[in-house]
Write a structure and sequence with these properties.
- With 225 residues, the chain is an alpha/beta fold.
- The protein has one domain: Glycerol-3-phosphate (1)-acyltransferase.
- The strands form two sheets. The protein has a seven-stranded mixed β-sheet, sandwiched between helices. Strands 8-9 form a two-stranded antiparallel sheet.
- Helix 3 links the parallel strand 3 and strand 4.
- Helix 1 packs across helix 2 and helix 5 crosses helix 7.
């Protein structure tokens, strides 16, 4: 019954998002159709989760979301339907990480926004180290994704104007810690390396804290294709 409800809700949401947004989703064809996958993306506003989960359907997809999202009845309904994983952003939430591991072991796509909050204007915010902790625990392919163009959604909605949204998908990679001790500095460096893979998919105006020259990527990225 839950699968039927998820199917129906996803179809309805997909129709609604296409009414509100002019979505360029052609690069989603690059997404592998089977196997565990960690999708790492930027986070501009509330639209990305609904778009990505409904557009990847029927590919099983879930994600980590701030636990406060469950305080909203509508969000709680959606995240529970999608198997969303509540995350305490103030701690190293190993309970959430264990649920993430279970989703990956089941061959799902696990979507994560390492910025930890919405940027609203689309400019990149420095990633939080939880993403590096996660990849240090579970060695699965990582897929960088980027969303942009829909940062003006609220204003366009008031004017009954459709908003463009572009989705870009990068090359799959894994993280190689090169035998280094996973201390605070290395974990943050790995986080920044991952975020730079997302940044590469965005136009310069969106690079924010990761603008050219602000960070070194190091030798942590191992491309898979």
């Amino acid at each position: 019954m839950k699968n039927v409800l998820r199917f129906v809700v996803n179809k309805i949401l997909k129709i609604i998002t296409h009414i509100l947004l002019d979505i360029d989703s052609t690069e989603l064809e690059k997404v592998p159709q089977k196997g565990p996958l960690l999708a790492v993306a930027n986070h501009i506003n509330f639209l990305e989760p609904a778009v990505i989960i409904t557009h990847l359907d029927p590919r099983p997809t879930t994600g980590l979301a701030k636990k406060e999202a469950w305080d909203n009845l509508f969000h709680r309904f959606l995240f529970n339907l999608w198997g969303g994983i509540p995350l305490d952003r103030d701690t190293a939430d190993f309970s959430a990480f264990q649920k993430a591991k279970k989703a990956l072991k089941e061959g799902m796509i696990l979507a994560v926004a390492p910025e930890g909050t919405r940027s609203e204007d689309g400019r990149m915010i420095r990633g939080k180290p939880g993403i590096a902790l996660l990849v240090s625990m579970y060695d699965v392919p990582i897929m960088p994704m980027a969303f942009y163009g829909h940062e003006d959604f609220n204003e366009n909605f008031k004017r009954l104007k459709r908003t463009p949204m572009k989705i870009r998908v990068g090359d799959l990679f894994r993280i190689d810690f090169n035998g280094q001790k996973k201390d605070k500095a290395v974990i943050q460096a790995v986080t920044d390396a991952i975020m730079l893979e997302v940044t590469k998919l965005l136009p310069d105006a969106y690079h924010g804290v990761y603008a050219q020259g602000n960070f070194e990527q190091g030798d942590y990225i191992e491309y898979l294709n």
